Backbone:
DNA sequence: CATTATACCTTGTATAACAAGGTATAATGT
DNA sequence: ACATTATACCTTGTTATACAAGGTATAATG
């Protein structure tokens, strides 16, 4: 029963829910990448080590919502690859979600920095 | 078709998934609060405006996992209230999840701060 | 011609936030 | 007295999404 690591990673999975959209939009900001290339980029960070089963449906959603474009292209000798890029709508969305993210970071850090017992009111 | 606000708030909902456990543990750090009191505290922050239908099942999970204790207590004339407090396990969990959170903030900020086109390798 | 590597896609499962309801009791209004 | 409101906790059904585990197709290699 290797359960302790499972319990740990369950938090990670839930943390990814909700940040992954932001993460993929940010990764595509100023870049045009195909699926596995994007996946490799995200594997450089502990927080964003996702699998293909997560990435492709996510990209489908982003495309469906008009936030990214998808385009098959053949680069030289390689097999065709589907390249994703931000639309202007996606770029705006990235800005909006990024602001939300900064707000969340601020709020949560405030909570972390103010343990009780105390009113946790408007001090300073 | 009041859809634009709905689309905005969908991101918020998903962002809460995965941060709420951390948030509630942090809120209970050094405090002993009953349900609605905890709810009011969380309503002071934009990111953590949740409802009772979210809070009570969440507290049940935390209790089931041994991270918090729940205790009915009657304070003077008021009706009995269920007071929640961190266990030592919960305190340790808060530390662990807090570290994970800092890692996530660091990773995501790195992604946000490094738009392409660029390898996004080990620069500096 | 079997195997491996690359690249994309699909299905089923589990989790968690939420809206919308519910119960019970104390305080207040008329 | 009795209806209403406020407080406090709880439950059910819906929805979204990350993931494991599978699948398809093609090109290069043994």
Residues:
């Amino acid at each position: 029963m290797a359960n302790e690591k499972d319990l740990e990673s369950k938090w990670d999975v839930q943390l990814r829910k909700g940040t992954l959209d932001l993460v993929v939009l940010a990764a595509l900001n100023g870049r045009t990448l195909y699926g596995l290339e994007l996946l490799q980029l995200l594997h450089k960070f502990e927080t964003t080590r996702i699998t293909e089963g997560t990435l492709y449906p996510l990209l489908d959603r982003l495309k469906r919502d008009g936030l990214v474009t998808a385009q098959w292209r053949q680069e030289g000798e390689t097999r065709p690859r589907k390249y994703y890029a931000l639309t202007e709508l996606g770029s705006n969305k990235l800005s909006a979600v990024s602001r939300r993210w900064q707000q969340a970071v601020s709020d949560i850090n405030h909570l972390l920095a103010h343990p009780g017992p105390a009113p946790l009111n408007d001090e300073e």
The beta strands of chain B are 33-34, 68-73, 81-86. The CA atoms of residues 24 and 38 of chain B lie 8 Å apart. Residues 1-5 of chain B have pLDDT under 50 and may be disordered. Chain B has one domain: 12-105.
